[in-house]
């Protein structure tokens, strides 16, 4: 059904036990609408159709989109998922996908912060990325903060590279994300919150006082005052902070 396109990060997964595991991990009910991102050859799609009320498959590759088999429960949309209008989907839809590595971080942020976010996501991503998503303070990243702010993450099975065609250079892993029942923090301005987070991580090798000063355009003395008000040492590094500490910095910083 065509040669995988390297430019689109296409790697076909045809291992039936793993495909079945991914679909089962999504806890799909007969009343659910599932958004599948990058269905490719439709190997995962058929497992989703067996469980869901409806599957909306968004595929960037026009040739692949046209070749997906017709099914009464399947709606194929040939589009860039980053430009797809998620508000058109039913409330509490679920996302299941084997997504290209290059797309992961940006896509997760778009989905998590949408006006109509998915109630859950089961994603097959690069193993290293999956482990970054579930990281604890000491190993945190912008990705971990941006996902964990909205979702409770859990690691699933590791999928060896040799199960793909063509094999990627690294193994993949399933990550399961459940939307938090209520916001972790109330009244949060996400743009301002992530301005601080990104400033903190802007220079990972530097101490927080330096990275915050440079990223926020304030003096190191002002950064130290901000950190002291939050109870965080200026000698700390961004990866050491918890979500609560980032929120405390957000509340204490005067924009």
Q: Can you put this structure into words, describing what you see?
A:
- The chain is an alpha/beta fold.
- The chain has two domains: 174 residues, Rossmann fold (3-Layer(aba) Sandwich); 63 residues, Orthogonal Bundle (Helicase, Ruva Protein, domain 3), CATH 1.10.8.
- Helix content is 33%, strand content 19%.
- The chain contains ten helices and nine strands.
- The strands form two sheets. Strands 4-3-2-5-6-9-7 form a seven-stranded mixed sheet. A two-stranded antiparallel ribbon has the order 1-8.
- Helix 3 links the parallel strand 3 and strand 4.
- The longest helix has 11 residues.
- The radius of gyration is 20 Å and the shape is elongated.
- About 2% of the residues have low confidence.
Count of distinct structural domains: 2
What portion of the residues fall into strands of 2 or more residues?
A: 15-25%
Structural class: alpha/beta
Considering the protein shown, what is the CATH homologous superfamily of the largest domain? Vaccinia Virus protein VP39
Overall pLDDT confidence = 93
Q: What does the largest sheet look like?
A: 7 strands, mixed
The CATH topology name of the largest domain reads Rossmann fold
Shape: elongated
Alpha-carbon Rg, integer: 20 Å
* Share of helical residues: 25-40%
Separation of termini? 54 Å
How many distinct helices? Answer: 10
Strand order of the largest sheet: 4-3-2-5-6-9-7
Per CATH, the architecture of the largest domain is 3-Layer(aba) Sandwich
Series of secondary-structure elements, N-terminal to C-terminal: EHEHEHEEHEHHEEEHHHH
Low-confidence stretches: 4-9
Highest CATH level, the class of the largest domain: Alpha Beta
Number of strands: 9
């Amino acid at each position: 059904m065509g040669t995988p396109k390297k430019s689109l990060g296409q790697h076909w997964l045809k291992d039936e036990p793993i495909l079945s595991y991914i679909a089962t991990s999504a806890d799909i009910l007969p009343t659910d609408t599932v958004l599948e991102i990058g269905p490719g050859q439709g190997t995962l799609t058929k497992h989703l159709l067996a469980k869901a009320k409806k599957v909306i498959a968004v595929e960037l590759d026009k040739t692949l989109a046209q070749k997906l088999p017709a099914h009464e429960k399947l709606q194929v949309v040939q589009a860039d998922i980053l430009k797809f209008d998620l508000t058109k989907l039913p409330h509490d839809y679920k996302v299941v996908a084997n997504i290209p590595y290059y797309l992961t971080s940006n896509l997760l942020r778009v989905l998590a912060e949408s006006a109509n976010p998915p109630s859950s996501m089961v994603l097959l991503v690069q193993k290293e990325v999956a482990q970054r998503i579930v990281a604890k303070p000491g190993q945190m990243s912008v990705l971990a903060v941006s996902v964990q702010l909205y979702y409770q993450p859990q690691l699933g099975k590791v999928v060896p590279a040799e199960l793909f065609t063509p094999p990627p250079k690294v193994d993949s892993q399933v990550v399961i994300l459940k939307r938090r029942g209520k916001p972790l923090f109330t009244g949060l301005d996400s743009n301002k919150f992530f301005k601080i987070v990104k400033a903190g991580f802007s220079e990972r090798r530097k101490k927080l006082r330096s990275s915050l000063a440079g990223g926020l355009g304030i003096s190191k003395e002002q950064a130290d005052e901000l950190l002291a008000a939050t109870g965080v040492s200026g000698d700390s590094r961004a990866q050491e902070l918890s979500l609560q500490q980032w929120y405390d910095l957000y509340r204490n910083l005067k924009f």
